[in-house]
Specification:
Blueprint (H helix, E strand, L loop, with lengths): L2 H21 L6 H12 L3 H14 L4 H11 L7 H41 L5 H50 L10 H18 L3 E8 L2 H8 L1 H18 L5 E6 L2 E7 L3 H16 L17 E7 L6 H17 L5 E4 L8
Length: 347
């Protein structure tokens, strides 16, 4: 889409948003404008679904509904100071746009009333009165043209600013979901992806598996070779796991030397095969200290695999994979164990 077309679309959407707020008697505040602007843009199916559902459940767009929607989709306070500042700038930009739109709307109403009044009285006006009225209309027309120009400039500026802020937010969000040491998904991303995956599995009855893994004797290795080298090992393992999965699978650092892999649309046997493949890839890596060139041997990993059972809690799903992981460790490490569905307690 060309820049001009994009601007026209944003301008039209802003006007539609204001009309909707007025028609439904919804408070014209930045929070509500942001929600309905995104809704009418039709670019975010999730917000459309949530707005429709809450409106159906609550019967109207109340302050409570607005707060719930805004906190879910547009509130970034939990992500730290930088996101709070970005959120403030978005609000500031929205307020500026709202002021221009309201100013333009008021001017258009007055202009329309004056034109209507002129049309009603034109036949009965004397020449001097007619000339004065025409001059007044010309002046108002120039004023409306100027207001329209200001509104267009304001909308274009806001559109560009919000686009920049959106990119900034996406970057900050991505950083908040990435483990700073290894560069792969962190625990927060893991939790988010697993929630989404279990919901999809429930709705589509599709397969879902989880692999939990742990570096064998990592504490001993860390103590013997130092934390700096230990960090390098964590990075090596993380990248091996990340490059070893494909499609919609997510490899994440769960905590410490433990990693989790979420496998949507995957059968249990395929998950076991992948776990063994990753186990062999990790153990095949030769570890050499860069500063001395000395060979420090190889590392191994233990893996536990579980398959999602419809209706079970996420905590139970993770616990079953963890149980299988501990079974692998207690059985001698460097192996893959399974927690079979018939062994599960879904409570």
């Amino acid at each position: 889409m060309r820049k001009d077309d994009s601007f026209k679309k944003a301008s039209l959407n802003a006007q539609k948003t204001m009309a909707l707020l007025k028609d439904r008697k919804i408070k014209t505040i930045p929070q509500n404008f942001t929600i309905w602007y995104e809704y009418l843009s039709e670019e975010n199916p999730e917000i459309i679904e949530v707005v429709n559902r809450l409106m159906l459940e609550k019967g109207k767009f109340s302050d409570e509904v607005a707060k719930q929607i805004y906190n879910e989709f547009f509130s970034y306070e939990k992500e730290g100071r930088e996101i709070r500042e970005t959120n403030r700038l978005v609000q500031q930009s929205m307020q500026a746009v709202l002021r221009e739109i309201q100013k333009s709307s008021t001017g258009l109403e007055n202009y329309g009333e004056h034109l209507s009044d002129f049309a009603d009285k034109a036949d009965g006006l004397s020449l001097p009165d007619l000339q004065e009225t025409v001059r007044s209309i010309v002046d108002e027309t120039k004023s409306m043209a100027e207001q329209s120009h200001q509104l267009n400039n304001s909308l274009q500026s806001a559109s560009e600013e919000i686009s920049t802020l959106k990119q900034r937010l996406e970057q900050v969000e991505n950083e908040s979901l990435t483990d700073p040491l290894t560069g792969i998904a962190n625990r927060k991303r893991f939790d988010k992806e697993l929630l989404s995956a279990t919901n999809i599995s429930e709705n589509t009855n599709s397969g879902l598996c989880l692999i939990m893994s742990d570096i064998d004797f990592f504490k001993k290795f860390n103590d013997q070779h130092g934390h700096v080298f230990g960090d390098q090992v964590l990075k090596l393992v993380a990248q091996t796991l990340k490059t070893g999965v494909t499609g919609k699978a997510t490899a994440a650092r769960y905590g410490g030397e433990e990693f989790g892999i979420i496998l949507p649309n995957t059968k249990l046997q395929h998950a076991v095969t992948l776990a063994n493949k990753l186990r062999n890839e990790v153990s095949s890596k030769k570890l050499v200290k860069r500063n001395t060139g000395s060979d420090v041997g190889r590392i191994t990993m233990s893996f536990g695999v579980s398959q999602y059972i419809q209706g079970e809690s996420i905590n139970n799903f993770i616990a079953r994979a963890d149980d299988a992981l501990y079974d692998a460790k207690n059985s001698g490490r460097d192996q893959v164990k399974i927690h079979l569905p018939e062994m599960a307690n879904t409570a």
